Amino acid sequence: MPRSTSSSSAKGGPVTLSMVATRAGVSPQTVSNALNSPDLLRPETLERVRRAIDEMGYRPSRAAQTLRTRSSKLIGYGMRPSPPGTTFPVMDRFLHALSEAADETGYRIVLFAEPAGDASLKGYEELLGQHNVDAFVISDTAERNDPRQAWLAKRDVPFVAFGRMWSKRQIGDWVDVDGACGTDAAVEHLIALGHRRIAFLGWRRGSGIGDDRAEGWQRAMRRHGLPTRGRRVESADDVDAARAAVKPLLDAGATAVVAASDTVALGCYYALRERGATPGRDVAVVGFDDSPIAAILSPGLTTLAQPLEEIGRECVRLLLARIAAPAAPPERILLDPSLVVRDSAPTPDA
């Protein structure tokens, strides 16, 4: 039985399974049974072994677990760099939430570099071959010709995506945020404030996520009989690009702007200040993502928060279910964002 490498004996060396057996007055096989097949032991014996394990701080090594179960307890995740000009990479918070959720189930996240826009699957091939990971989590699924889902599915490698595939063919399990629901709620909030000339500062058409967020704005506007023609402009997800793109909306007299992200909302802030106007007082602004900068801007940015902790938990849950039942039908989960109200679009009674 391989030794533990995560705890130490009084002499400074690693605590071994044999040392635990001596402490508990049982055989090494009995300790192994207590860890792996506790139902084989009498309750008093199991309690004695567990007490010795706790007192000595023994932890079975990952190598031993891998040999026994043929599972590495490792989940691969490819990290892509955030585009230049963005104010906050949402994926950092997602990765923290994912890691916490994985830790709670005994798994660990293994990171590897994935160059932005790179269609190569080299990182996935190497991680499968060299480290025998059990599964993958993928994100940044907006690319129309993303090969990762089909490649993993063809090889029967369990995976879950944070984000929908924005094509007709859907592969595998995913968890995503309902952007349309979020921007719909943002428009409702602005209407309650008395706004009727509500514009949308979005991403370029063809972006699945951006189009989804634009759809919610358009849906709510039509529901209230408000015009949308000439009240939507497109921008890259970049502060300077958004500052230039929003100017026609402000020239046309928009009293409120719903932005596709906090990054483009910040561009709107800059454009307003160039005109001597104040966000919230002269033109209401709502962002999307609830990045850290949203709370420290002056005035604070009203924005939509993605439920990243819940997304992390759901991703891990779906992965474990897929590992346990590879042939089960795919599961897709759509979660609602929540409106975080600050001074750029305060509550109606503020």
UniProtKB/TrEMBL annotation:
One of its GO terms (molecular function) is DNA binding. Keywords: DNA-binding, Transcription, Transcription regulation. InterPro entries: HTH_LacI (IPR000843), LacI/GalR-like_sensor (IPR046335), Lambda_DNA-bd_dom_sf (IPR010982), Peripla_BP_I (IPR028082). It holds the Pfam family Peripla_BP_3. PROSITE patterns: HTH_LACI_2. Residues 15-69 form the HTH lacI-type domain. This is LacI family DNA-binding transcriptional regulator. It comes from Streptomyces vastus. The lineage of its organism: Bacteria, Bacillati, Actinomycetota, Actinomycetes, Kitasatosporales.
